[in-house]
Amino acid sequence: MDLCKPATVPRSQAAKYEQQGARYWDLFYKRNFTNFFKDRHWLAREFPALLDAAAVLEVGCGVGNTTFPLLEVNPSAQVYACDYAPTAVQLVKAHPDYAASSRVHAFVADITADDLTAQVPAGSIDACTMIFVLSAIAPRLQRRAIRRVAATLRPGGRLLFRDYAAGDLCQERLAGEGRQQQLGDNFFVRWDGTCAYYFTEERVRAVFEAEGFVCEYIGAANKLLENRKKGEQMDRRFVQAVFTYTGQPSAAADEEDEDKAEEQGTAQQHQQQQQQQHGSPQAPQCHQQGAAQQPQDQDPLSDVQLNLGSTPLQLWCRQPARGSDTAAAVEAAAGARAATEALAALVLACPAFFHNTHVLELCSWDAPLASLAALRWCRRAVAAGASEAAVALLRRNAQRNGHLFVIERLRLQQLTWQQQPENQQQQGEQEQQQRRQGEQERQQQERQLLRAFPDGFHAALAAVPPTNGELQGLLGSARVQLSRQPGALLLLCASDAAAVQQAVAAAAGHGLQQAGCLPAEVTSAVHAVAESSGTQFLVLQHCI
């Protein structure tokens, strides 16, 4: 999908990610619990200083993947473990080994703002680990974080560091074409709002030496991983270092000057980007936030804000044209929006069902909400609009929020599912010819989509359209796209029961029937979302 957008996240959004880092990491642990990271049994091999340290501080402890292996290899160490995600600390405390040991103290702390000596005796730590921690912090705050950690170390204490290195495969993906996830030099935001900085060895050495550390060792720790299923090799790059604390912290004023200089540089960078964007006639305006200018369009658009789960979106939405049918148009638009939001909520509630799938959304509203939601779990999502104008607006809204998702998994497609009435006695020759041409175009669009996805789709989602012609066309197009995937589901949503009953009656004519046995996750989500949103769902599949 050609998003035609700058690589850098808008400044207002970038500031939000920096300021709300704890919130995004807390949401990460609420989603993944203890299932994401593996225990780091390699630590003692890479950092022998941990074997005989009497007091250890683990910064960014997560769910204890370093803490509890450390207790095994050093049976006498007193371990302090902190993280700024409250859910992570709760999971550490819920670990069976935490309650069984008096040698671990876990607490919540933001190392860029909190005084760690309120929880850890000042100057008492022999070894401190910062494993994939500093990369989550904005570059301008990294020295401040190091200074607060240094206050806990005794003179001669060791700081053991490992983090992402510049040139890592993940950095290349985040900086790839069509992405809008760069916050600054070597600094990126992932789809879930968590951030990652990719270090050079020079940067690592500079920030630690500026805070009173002496470098004992620094070097690369690269790995070539193989995904046998996909036949891919992944070049993972890390930087690893050991520092000794001299006991002589730097002056805070030095860091404040650095912060101001970096903020000014960032502001200038964003100003230059804005000038470049406005100076080019092809530069889209839709990526801007807040007071973004309305795209030049024949139809008036309103600026709408809503949340997709915990992710805030800003969208352009069409306003019904003035006229005698304004009330009906407003009601239809409201129904399409309510159904679209409910479908997106359903997708978010079914991670197992949508995991690694191909998903098709037949969009009746102005934003591809269900497709964007599916990007969290699926392998590929297609958002289909019924006209060129509809696809253009879907693209604008995907563009505007592209930095929040793995957007290269999204494809936009025109699929004109509306059908004209077949009463040829009431149609002139010109109308009949237009209808035949429209049907040929739709069939060609369906064939193009089938060629792009020869295995078909595992699920299709749509709001029930208001007219019978649109409903018949939608069911026909959905049946074609789902025909190649056994057990594929068509999930329909409407704001009232009458529309659902109309869809039930029309489904049989397209070889579709109500799904009998649904996955428990889907059944539960359908009931929960329908109750909370006041909408109605219908789940169809091919007749057996």
From TrEMBL:
Gene3D superfamilies: Vaccinia Virus protein VP39
Ranges where the Methyltransferase type domain occurs: 57-159
Biased composition range(s): Low complexity: 264-305, 421-431
Keyword Methyltransferase appears in the UniProt entry: yes
Molecular-function annotations in GO: RNA methyltransferase activity; S-adenosylmethionine-dependent methyltransferase activity
One Pfam entry name: Methyltransf_12
TM ranges: none
Protein name as catalogued: Methyltransferase 6
Record organism: Chlorella sorokiniana (Freshwater green alga)
